[in-house]
Write a structure and sequence with these properties.
Number of domains: 1
Radius of gyration: 20 Å
Strand order of the largest sheet: 1-2
Structural class: mainly alpha
Number of helices: 20
Helix content: 55-70%
Mean pLDDT: 93
Number of strands: 2
Distance between the termini: 26 Å
Low-confidence stretches: none
Amino acid sequence: MWIAASALVVVAFLATIAQSYHPPYGFTSLIEFPQESHATEIPAVRDTPHFEHPPPSGYDGQFYAQMAVEPLLRDPAIDGALDNPAYRGRRILFSWTAYALGLGKPAWILQAYALQNVAAWLALAWILTRWIRPETARAFALWTGCMLAHGLLVSVQFALPDGASLLLIAAAVIAVEAGRPFVAALVLGLAGLARETNLLAADALARVERRSVRSWLILGVCLLICVLPLALWIDYLRSIYRWRVLDSADNINLPFWGLWWKIKMVASEFNGRPKMWSFGNAAAVLAFVAQGVCVIWAWLVRRDRSPWTLVAVAFFALGLISHPVVWNGNPGAFTRVCLPLTIGANVVLARWPEAPGWLIAVVNLSVLPGVFLMAEVW
C-alpha cells in the first residue's frame, strides 16, 4: 500500500511538471526567463523561442540556461546576460550537461536544461529507497519528506542546480559506503563544478581514515581529486575575468546571524495578520533547526559516522553561517542550499526506530511550503 502511495507521489509530481508545458515553448517556463530581460539575453537565446514570464519574475535558472548555450563563456554578450558572470561561471556543470544533451542546438539545449532537474528528481526518488524504503507509514513519511521538501521542489520548478547536485552527492555517498573513495572523489569533483558548496560533502570521505599512513595518503589524494576540477576551471575563467574570477555573492557571514535574522522576520509576520506564506516560512525554519539538532545528536551522542550524517552536519554548519540574503524570501534559498541536511536528517531517523512521530513531522515541515509551491503551479 505504501509503495503504491509513493508511486502516487511521483505521479502527482509529474502532473505538476506537465502544467509547465506551453506550446510552442515546451518546458522553458521552468527556467523563469523574465520579459524585461529579453534585450540583454545572448543572441542565440533571444532568437530561440522560449517562455518569458511577466513582471515581477526572473530567477537564477535563466543565467545557467544561457551559459548552457555558450558553455565556454567566450561570447562577450554573456557578461551582459549574467548578474555576476564570474560567480555564475564557476557553476558550469549542468550547463555543460544541457549543452551535451541538446547536441549544441539552442532550442534543444533550453529544453534539456529545463528538464534535467526533473530527471534528477525521478532518479533521487529511486536512489533514496536505498536508505529509506517506503514500505511502512513511517518510512513513507520520511521518503516523502525528502521528495516533497521545498528545497528540492523549488530547484525543479525554477531549473536550479541544487536538485541535480543532490543526486551527485547521493552517488558519492553510495561510493563511500561501497568502499570506493576514489570513485566518490571523482563524483564530488564533478559536483564541485555545479556548486562550490557541494565540496562540503567531501567530509563523507572521513570514513576511509583508519589512523594509518596509508589511509591518510588515500584521503589526501581523494581531497585533491575533489578540488582539482574546480581549480582547473577557475584557472580557465581567470583568462576571461582576470581578478574578478573569485567574485562572490557575499553569502557567508557570522554564525547564527542569518538564522536569527530569519527568526525575527518570521516573528514579525505573526504580529499582524499572517499570510499563507508566513506559515510556510515558520515551517521551513523549524524544519531546519530540527534537522540540525537531529544530525548533531546522531553525530555527537550516538557516535554516528555514516556518510549521510557527516554530509548533513557540514550543510547544517553552512546554513548557520549563511548571510541573511540566503534566508530572505518565502521561505528563502536556504531550503535548497541545505538540501543534503534534509536527506541526512531523514536517513538518521530511518535508522532510529525509536524516533517519535512528532520529531519526524517537525523535521519534515518544509513539505508545507513545498506543497504551497505545487499548489501555485496548479
